[in-house]
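re: that complex we talked abt at group meeting.

here r the seqs, copy pasted straight from the sheet so there may be weird spacing, ignore it
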Amino acid sequence: MDEVLWATARASGVVALVLLTLSVVLGILTRGGRPMIGLPRFAVAHLHRDASLLATAFLTLHVVTLLGDSYAGLRLVDLMVPFLAARDALWQGLGTTALDLLLAVIVTALLRRRLPAAVFRTVHLAVLPLWGIALLHALGSGTDAGTLWFRVLAAASAAIVLAATLWRLLAPSFRTHPAARARRTPERSLR
Amino acid sequence: MSTLALPAPGLLDPARPEPLPRADDLPAQITRSGLTGRGGAGFPVGAKIAALRRPPAAIVANASEGEPLSAKDTVLLRESPHAVIDGLLLLSDALAPRAALTIMVHPRSAAGVRAALAARPDGHRVRLQVAQERFVAGEATAVAAALAGGEQIPADHPHHLTEKGLRGGPVLVQNAETLAHVARIARHGAEAFRSAGSAEDPGTRLVTIARPEGAESVLEVPGGATLREVLHLAGTEPGMLDAVLVGGYHGRWARPEQLDLPLGPRPAPGVHGAGAGVLMLLDRGRCPLAVTTAILDHLAAQSAGQCGPCVLGLPRIAASMHDLEAGHGDPARLRRRLEAVAGRGACRHPDGTAQLAASTLTAFGPELTAHAAGRCTGWRR
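got the structure back, here u go
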C-alpha cells in the first residue's frame, strides 16, 4: 500500500503545479483587463478562480498523502515550518515555503471584501515568487524531475509565466491600476 | 570432504534429449526434496506450487540474468539446455498441460537455446523470448510484464503472481537452474536430490565466481558447503582475499573470519545467503569502498524509474558512499538514507541496494576510518 501514497502524491504534485501555472497565467491576464481570444473578461476571472480552487485541492491531496508516506518522513511541523525536515531539508523546505505563501494568498483572497485593496494586492503578488519556489521544489524533490517530459513541462510553464508577466509589465495601456486611471480620467469622458 | 560429494551426472554435464519420465507425483517429490528457488529469493519451490489456486496460465523458465556478475544461467543453458527445457515441460505436465511455456533468456543465450529447442520433437511446446538487458529484468513481475508484451520492469503487485499474473491467470516463474533441478528430481527422485547437500540446504547449487570486472567461472557445489569449501572447489586461495561479496550486487560482504560459515538459500544468523549464487572475490589490496561505490552507482542507474524512494533514494545512497570513500562522509547520514528506502518500492531493488551499503558499513569499519583520515589501505586498483 505504501507505493499508493507516494504515487498519489507524485501525480497530485504535478497536477497541482500545472493548475497553479494555469491559475497564475489567467490571473495575470485578467489583471490585464483585456478579454482573451473568445473569452469575456468575467470568464477569464472565473477560470482563474476555478483553476486556483482545483490547484488548492490537488495540493491538499499532495500534502496529506505525503504525510502518510514513510519515505517522505514528514512530521506535522514540516507542513508549516520549512527546512526542519531530517531528509532532503532544502527541497522539501521550498515546498513548505510555497505552501505557507499560498496559505496567505488564499486567506487574503477569501477575505478580499473585508481587507484594504492594497493588502490583497500586495499579498496576491506573492503568487509569483510562490510559483517559482514551487517549481524549484518540483525540480528538486520530484520523482519525475529527471525525465524529459517533466523538464519540457517545467520549461514550458516557466516560459508561459514569464511571457505573461512581461506582457503585463510592458503593455503600456495597463501600467496603471484601473481605479487610479478612473481617478485621473475626467468624469465626462466616461459618458 | 565427503560432504562435498556431488551427484553424477552434474548439473552442467550435457544432457541429451531423452524421453520425459511420468510427472504424476512431481509436486509431492519437489516438496519432499526441499528444493528452493535458485533465482535469488530462495523460496521453497514446493510451497510456491502449493500456493497456486488454479493451474497456471503460463510457466516461465527465467534466465533473464540481469545481475551483471552472474553467469550461471547462461553457462547452464550453454552446457545443458535440455535439462532446463525438460524441467519446464515436466512441471507443465504435472501442473498445467495447457499452460503457455516460455524460456526467457539473456540475449547471449538466445541462439543456443533456439537450436536446442529445434533439436527436440517437443521443442515446439516452448516459446523462446529474449529478455531486456537491465538489472531488474529478472524480477518475477518484470518477467510477467514482458510476457504480456510490455517493458520488462517490475510492477507493484498486491497479489502474488501465483494468484493473479497474466491476464488474470496465475503465472509460475522459476529460475532456469531451479527447473534443471526439477528435471533431476523427476528422473532420479527426491531422495537422490537430498543425498547431496545438508538437511538445511539440500541438493546442489550453481555458483558464479566473479571479480569486480565480471564473472570468471561457474561450478556446481553441494548445499550447505562453507564459503571456504566453495572457494576450495573453485580453486581459489582464500588467503589472497580481503572479502567475498556473497549474493552479488544485492548481497552482503563476508570477511575472512566468516569463511567457515555455510551458504544457504537465504541469509540467516550463521548462514551466508547465496542469493543467485554469485561470489565476488575482493583481492587483498583492492579498496572495498571504491568497488562498492561503483556497484551502488550502477544499481542507482538501474532503477526502472517507477517508485519515488528508488528514483530519489538510491542516488543519494550512492552519493553518501562516494562521500565516505572521499573521506568526508557521515555513516549516520548514510544509515538514515538506508532506513528511508527499507521495504519501499514495487520490487526489492531498493532493499537489495540498501543491504549492500549496510553490509559495507559493517564489514569495513577500519577502511572507513582510514578514508576519514585521508588514507586508503588499498594499493592496487
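couple things i noticed - The two ends of chain A are 66 Å apart (CA to CA). Residues 25 and 161 of chain A are 6 Å apart (CA to CA).
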